Amino acid sequence: xxxxxxxxxxxxxxxxxxxxxxxxxxxxxxxxxxxxxxxxxxxxxxxxxxxxxxxxxxxxxxxxxxxxxxxxxxxxxxxxxxxxxxxxxxxxxxxxxxxxxxxxxxxxxxxxxxxxxxxxxxxxxxxxxxxxxxxxxxxxxxxxxxxxxxxxxxxxxxxxxxxxxxxxxxxxxxxxxxxxxxxxxxxxxxxxxxxxxxxxxxxxxxxxxxxxxxxxxxxxxxxxxxxxxxxxxxxxxxxxxxxxxxxxxxxxxxx
Length: 255
What we know:
Layout: E1 20-21, H1 26-34, E2 43-50, E3 54-69, E4 72-85, E5 88-99, E6 105-114, E7 117-126, E8 131-134, E9 139-141, H2 150-158, E10 167-170, E11 181-193, E12 196-206, E13 214-220, E14 227-234, E15 238-248
């Protein structure tokens, strides 16, 4: 599994003192969906760079739809990556279907390959019933009304206010074993990537993952909240960065 896979956005770390708890009820979720900073047609492309190996691949995140999932209108979120480190190929194909009205996960699928092996997931999520099932016959309960998966979590973070110094504990992963997720807004700074120079809000995301314990997101400090830089690390590949190289269907401010 590659280190910058969106899977890393999933789960979380221990609570920190003075956390601002964010608990969205149905009305709050509807209001958040109405002001979501992304829409069908948005395509973000990235170059992957490793501190150990240099540039090693490209990826893209896309929003399309709406489509129907079990009778509910949903947006389809996609992340696709291909790369190579020496003789090793890296691939990641991730899909998430989120309800248009509430930004909650209804379905999740992932297929990835790396030197560490291959991994596949196919999950059906039933928010109103508080449960989920996967293609291998596993099932479980959810402990929130608006569950999310690894990919939809990134889009959800884009919908948060993110004032300087804010800290959040989020209990929104569909699998309770991966909760909570903690966020901390580190501040604002100017960030240069291949796509241009942006004023960004920097967010640290601590996750419950045996290979990656934290990520850092650089989101445009405007209504779009586009991730222009994503930093993470993994044992075999070291520190990695996803750097924005192109935007379609969105209009971040650049200078």
